[in-house]
Amino acid sequence: MNKELEFLQELFTTEGESINILVFIVKILVTTVLSLVIGFFYVRYGNALSNRSALAKTFVLIGLNTMLIISIVKSSLALSLGLVGALSIVRFRTAIKEPEELAYFFIVIAIGLGVGAGQFIVAILGTISLCVIIFLLSLGKTNMITQNFTIQLKQATKEDVENILHILQSHATQLSLHRLDDSQQATELSFSVSFQSIHKLLDVKENLQSQYPGISFSFLELQ
Question: How far is CA 87 from each of CA 8, 77, 90, 216, rounded to the nearest angstrom?
């Protein structure tokens, strides 16, 4: 019986500073709330074209993982040194489509670092400050739609192409022709185009269809 008690004592005894369970629970709650706040601001005010709601769901996991690692390694010098070696073999291979996504990842990681280190006031005030900055930057943001716009029609002449360009320029805020494929069967035009709203896109679609009944469209997310 004594040997079993000694084994259990050794099993649950840490070499460094012991972790207060109540404080650890508070860290979990604070990290979760702050990460959810950042996720809300990312979905509401972000500019990324990707699925912001799906990405925002990972913020809580990233924040909690960071907080957990810092809470563990700060209690032991040996663990903190071992973390350096462990991270040297870890590679983050998931492609980041836009710099904005990386910026929000760093914000959530910073929250996990601050809360894990016990700097609750700094983490909370920092999150509030960043949210205010994000809101202020969003005041001048418009709901501009920027995507790949492909048009295909049969045997387009030079006048047809110029007319299509004129129609797009009259409705779009930005227009860039990336590719023009012309054959005996069809002509295909690929643009990077920005519209002020979805209504502008629909106006272009109706205008082109009225002049070119056989025309087809493809509107794709930028990669």
Answer: 30, 16, 5, 50
